[in-house]
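Researcher: We're teaching a course module on how sequence relates to structure. For the next exercise, students receive a sequence and then see the predicted structure as tokens, so they can try to spot secondary structure elements on their own. Here is the exercise chain.
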Amino acid sequence: MKHIYLIIAIALQTSALVGQHTVPTEVVTPTHTQEHVTETPHKKQAANLLEAFEQGHFRGHFRTYFMATDNTRNLSDYYAWAAGGSLHFSTAPWHGFSFGIGGMFNHKITSSDLTARDSVTGALNRYEIGLFDVEDPTNHRDFDRMEEFWLRYQWKKSLLTLGQQGIQTPFINFQDGRMRPTAVAGIWAEIKALKNTKLEGGWLWKISPRSTVEWYGIGESIGLYPKGLNPDGTGSGYATNLESAGVGIMGATRQWGKRTKIQVWEHYIDNIFNTSFAQVDYTHPLGNDHNLLLGAQFIHQDALAHGGNEDASKSYFVKGGRSNVISTQAGWQRGNWKILGAYTHITSDGRFLSPREWGREPFYTFMPRERIEGSGNSHAVTGRVLWQNPAQKLKIELAYGHFYLPDVKDAAFNKYAFPAFRQVNVDLRYTFGDALKGLKAQFLYVWKGRMGEVYGNDRYLINKVDMSHLNIILNYTY
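Model: And here is the predicted structure for the students to work with:
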């Protein structure tokens, strides 16, 4: 904890000396609820090393988050309130090179007992513990983490970054919510040498997942969250038993004319599995400011070697296993209104698997607070209405979805024994101005109702379905 406070103290003192050189920052809002501040690459080269630090800039983020879950009948209910923030510093480039460092701190304000098991089912808390440390629910103080520590080379509009940093890919990303995002350690390149085309890729050797404070090797980072079942119905034993040298990623995004955007990605997880991803989004003008929105995704996965461990009970991906996913979207947009409908199908070739510790799934049907990862032979259908006022200060999203998962006892296609369910999300966001510029508020309400059979077993209900979930979030960025 002391090293984070030392960094912040030094940064605040240095800020007083070089504040006149501070460069305005760009705030990037990843999908859904996570507010994450990223640095804006400097355009001006420093003349010497001292000037590189003097012309460096700070960016910061303060976040307070209240979360509560109301489970059905006499099953346990939960609440938690956390507050924290982060402070980051990056130098101006000198001969193309720049340096960045940053850390975060969290504090628990109050919560229900997140270590207690439900008296009926024996289940532990699922959502609220994510505001703190999922690895140690008894940890109420040591929530600090060094998130960034990198060396970067910048040429024209391209970047090459080595060290601890944040990246956004379809399967490794900041994630949606909680207090701090997922961070990675590795080498990462962003190439913008071609017009309307962005190439990304690199090699990662460590990950610090959302809701954790430590850094983990690739294999040991998988299994920090609930692990579910093996295809034969036994408990998954891959936690701490996976071997992997790292993750290799390649991606290309191209804007094809004014209407079409294409993405292709390859995620290679050494010794465990490989995921290929392709997405096409198309906008067709209909006249009178009306637009037709169309999108399609295809995902294919293959196991590598023994899926992480020669012992099948301790592997992550079944040897020789594979999965295929198709996700589509169609919608209408005019002015500040948007209406979207989406459908996702995971085929019966196998369970779609992606470590939840690393990021949220990219499907068009994704709704915050639930996923269909871990399922096969499943279907999801969602509809959403989005509106923002002309000043773009108030944004409202209403979403409804049906998620048709296999039977809870079908472990071969339902890793987490999750019943089919329907879900409602109400998401309200407001951006303040004037004296409160930099402050954003969000209200997210989620209701999930059961559709599938649970055989009278409340373990299939608690923290899964027949529940309400509330989130109230304040973010201040500078």
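Model: If you want an answer key for the exercise: The radius of gyration is 22 Å. Confidence is low (pLDDT under 50) at residues 1-34.
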